[in-house]
Amino acid sequence: MAINQKSISCLTCKKKSSCFNELSKADHRILEANRLELKFKRGEVICKQGAFASNIMFIYKGIAKSYLETDNGKHVILNVLSEGRMIGLPALFSNNVFPYSAAALEDCIVCSIDINIFEEYTKSNGGFAAEIIKTLNTCAVNNYDHYISITQKKMNGRLADVFLHLADNIYKSHHFSMSLSRNDLAEMTQMSPESVTRVITRFKSDKLIKVTGKTYEIKKIDELRKISYLR
Amino acid sequence: MAINQKSISCLTCKKKSSCFNELSKADHRILEANRLELKFKRGEVICKQGAFASNIMFIYKGIAKSYLETDNGKHVILNVLSEGRMIGLPALFSNNVFPYSAAALEDCIVCSIDINIFEEYTKSNGGFAAEIIKTLNTCAVNNYDHYISITQKKMNGRLADVFLHLADNIYKSHHFSMSLSRNDLAEMTQMSPESVTRVITRFKSDKLIKVTGKTYEIKKIDELRKISYLR
DNA sequence: CGCGAGCTTGACGTTGTTCAACTAGAGTGG
DNA sequence: CCACTCTAGTTGAACAACGTCAAGCTCGCG
Predict the structure, then answer these.
(1) pLDDT at B226 exceeding the cut of 60
(2) What is the CATH number of domain A153-229?
(3) pTM of whole model > 0.85?
(4) Is the pLDDT of residue B41 over 50?
(5) In angstroms, how far apart are the furthest CA atoms of chain B?
(6) In this structure, CATH architecture of domain A18-149
């Protein structure tokens, strides 16, 4: 799975997370030496909940999901992760175990960086530490929004939230090829796959969205926002 | 509300968060100079979601709750906070706005520390930064557990989780005086106050707990753990 | 052309909310 | 010290939301 020849350079990487801007050229060379490029096919597990977190992952290309695996064997999707997002930060300075799993929703190219490098930079470089904390906190606030969506809204509102999130933050277009299965959508909205289908059917017949195979087009985004607004 | 005379000293404070152990005596003197002691009565708001976060709070005495205020005016309790817990860390290095509110569940004594001090120490002291990240990440993992409880378990399991959390982590005893109202329990478990009553009635008649006024006694903790185990 | 996974649809059952009426207990003023 | 009030808690009945189950469908792929 690993690519021996790295195709990307940290120093010139356009997608890197803000924390890396705090590093010197010398730091970048060290980073480069402690980095791997990995390719994952759609569906493959990128990191496994409970496994020893020896690396922090960075999504260079593709889309992934992070999810919790519960005792009853179900999955709870926490987030859809687009390019530039990091995986595994919550393992930093804890017991170094991934608290969630992640899997590729599309074919992905991932940078895998030694977690010790992260911890060293955090301790030695205040700007780097600040950016890490900022990233963690942004993620926490997003989680709060998701939590409100799940706990306060009915099915229509929850699914509207997912479509808005996909259009606004993930695909950054009203027109996209959907990488999430009915089951993924169900695990993200905490409803049954059958209910996901039913709500999507309703959205289609109300002309809010248009679906052609895997291609989704959001036709009435304002209407979706209204539905999202606590309903 | 503010006490002019401070009754506590940072250096000798037994309850302080682990990050402060990373500070020198000189640092502690600066901390002392940028710190206030506040008293809050039961029910009073300690910090308000959306307000400018000029301070990080620290619960020296008492119990508080952190909660989200939703657009429909409802409250979603994130956590019950016991002595030694900090409030407002998610505002660090973000837009410095509290992403949640907090209120006292019992009369509280709170240390309020200038947020700039926190940001400065984080940048200048690697050990301090590491402890802050560790604290944030521990909290994130707890949130994941809570999220699984809410999304995967039925009412019995969710309420069992709350009782276990109170006994294990908050009151640290099987016998405690309950500071949470039916409504608090409802906002924490995402059920209606009526349903909270119904489940508690069931727990009482099954002799899992004994309730005398505000005093709760957990009689069969193993049984509660079984109920918590995804049911 | 046939197979299978993922998707769709309808009928039905369960869970939990809502509403309304009632009760208990704490605080207040005469 | 007692009536009065107000809030929090309790209880039951009706109802809505959503999940489950079973059957059938579609489409990509060998």
Answers:
(1) yes
(2) 1.10.10.10
(3) yes
(4) yes
(5) 58
(6) Sandwich (2.60)
pLDDT digits (tens, 9 = 90+) for B164-189: 999 999 999 999 999 999 999 999 99
Closest to A157 in 3D by CA, of A227, A96, A225, A204: A227
Alpha helices in chain A (DSSP H): 25-33, 115-124, 126-152, 155-165, 182-189, 193-205, 221-228
Mutate to test the interface with A, among B98, B122, B151, B155 (most CBs of A within 10 A): B151
The Å distance, CA of B24 to C1' of D26, is 69
Alpha-carbon distances, residue A163 vs A172, A191, A225, B209 (angstroms): 11, 15, 10, 44
Q: Which residues touch strand D (CB under 7 A)?
A: A 154-155, 190-192, 194-195, 213; B 181-183, 193-194, 196-198, 200-201
d(CA A142, CA A185): 17
Cα gap B129→A107, rounded to integer Å: 35
Angle between helix axes A115-124 and B126-152 (nearest 10 degrees) is 130
- CB-based contact B152 A74, cutoff 8 Å: yes
Using the Cβ of B97 and the Cβ atoms of chain A, whether some distance falls under 8 Å is answered with no
Tell me how crowded residue B144 is: count the other CB atoms within 10 A of its CB. 18
A21-56 pLDDT, tens per residue?
Answer: 888 888 888 888 889 999 999 999 999 999 999 999
- List of chain A residues whose C-beta atoms are within 8 Å of the C-beta of residue B129: 122-123, 126, 129, 133
Residue listed under structure tokens 């009369």: B107
Which residues of B are less than 8 Å from A137 in CB distance? 89-94, 99, 136
Domain residue extents for chain A: 18-149, 153-229
Instruction: Give B132's DSSP letter.
Output: H
Identical fold at B18-149 and B153-229?
no
Q: How many CB atoms lie within 10 A of CB B182?
A: 15
Which of A144, A146, A190 has the most B C-beta neighbours within 10 Å, making it the best mutation to test the interface with B?
Answer: A144
Cβ–Cβ gap A151/B150 under 8 Å? yes
